[in-house]
Amino acid sequence: MRLVTEAAWVAGSAAVAGLGVALVDFGKTGQVSGAAGVVFLAFGCCLAGLVAAVRRWAPGTSSFLLWPTALLVALGLVEIYRIDPMGAPIQMWWVVAGVVAAIWVLAAFRLGVERLMSVSYWLAAGGLCLIILPFLPRLVDGNSGDAAGLWLTIGWGNVSFIAQPFGLGAVLLTVGLAGIHSRWALDPPPAGAGSRLVSLRNHLVVAAVWVTTLPLLWATGDLTAWAMLVVLSATIAYAAAGDTRVVWTGLGLVGIGSVAGLTSSRVSQTLDVWLDPFSAGEAGAGLKESLLALGSGHLSGSGLGMGDPELIPRATSDWILAALGEELGLAGTVAVIMLYGLVTAAGVGIAIASRDLFCKVTAASLSFLLCLMFLAGAGGLERLLPPTNLGLPLLAYGGVPLVAGWLAIALLVRISHEEKGHL
Amino acid sequence: MNRSIRRVALLLMVGMVVLVVGATWHQFVAADSYRNHPDNRRRALLQAGKERGMISTVGGRVLAYSEQDPDSFRSYNRRYPAGEAFRSVLGTEDAPGGLEEVYADELRSRRDLTVSDLMAAMFGEDLRPRGLQITLDADLQQRAYEILARRRGAVAAIRPDTGEVLALVSSPRVPVTERAAGVLYPVGSVFKIVSAAAALDTETADVESLFEDRAVWQIPGATLVVTNPGNVPCGDAAQVSLLTSFVFSCNLAFAELALEMGSEIMDAYAAAFGFETAMEFPLETPVPSFGAERSSDPDLLASAGTGGLALSSPLHMASVAAVVANGGLRAPPYLVASWTDADGEVNERPETPEANRVTTPETAASVARMMERVITEGTGQEATVAGHRVAGKTGTGQDADGRNHAWFVGFAPVDSPTIALAVMIEPGGEFGESVTGATAAARVASELLSYWLQRS
Question: Is 0.80 surpassed by the pTM of this model?
Answer without folding.
Answer: no
